[in-house]
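Sequence in, structure out.
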Amino acid sequence: MAERGHPIPTKLRQDAIVEVLFEVRFNLPPNLLPEIFFGRLADHQPWKNFTQRRLPTAQIPAQLLQVDPNLRYQPTFELIAGNDLAVRIGAQVLSYHRRSPYAGWVRFKSELEAAIDGLFEKAPGLEIQRLGLRYMNALRSDVHGLNSISGLDLALSVAGDQVAGNVNVNFTTEVAQNTDCTVRIATPEFVQGDLPPSTSAYVDVDVFTKEAFRTRDRTVVRDWIELAHTKEKEQFFRLLRSEMIESLKEK
């Protein structure tokens, strides 16, 4: 059940997801060089046939990447499969990206579990510092029946006057003992990158561990992924009115 009391649909007839990503930040064991680590991950069985590509950050000296907090968790190369799947890797980060069309949670979860297994197997002794699961959604007038942001179950007002035009708002809530969630709701003019035609509202739901989180246990990571997915769905569906959910859910 969502917090509002409405059942959460297992699946929508047509989802609004434009991209979903999972990010892991970590400390490598001191005896493992980043270059060796990169090579091991590139040879991970599910990714062996992926195209390899250096990212612009690969040109930055490693010492500078470590010193600058804005660069420390930036990936330096990526593994690509087609136009919808990328694995981006740095000395302290791995992120797994899936673009639309979304294949569903069962498949995506199995891919993430394979990524986690690869990470722990290729870097024994690494310490996980942060986990994040993020879903970026574009709600559309022609597909989802949302003509404006005022159609969401959301009330924004200034001096009693409802704000229903151009909107860009963020809020963060605690969703579990070690986990927070930031939700961003915006109209298209505030969103960088391509959105589908007729997008009325962009909803970005980012679930992440708190600053004190640390683990060396892959089971903890697997369990957290399931929790994060549940909390992400709760936060997303809280924004939809019950009649909209009913009209969109798969029968």
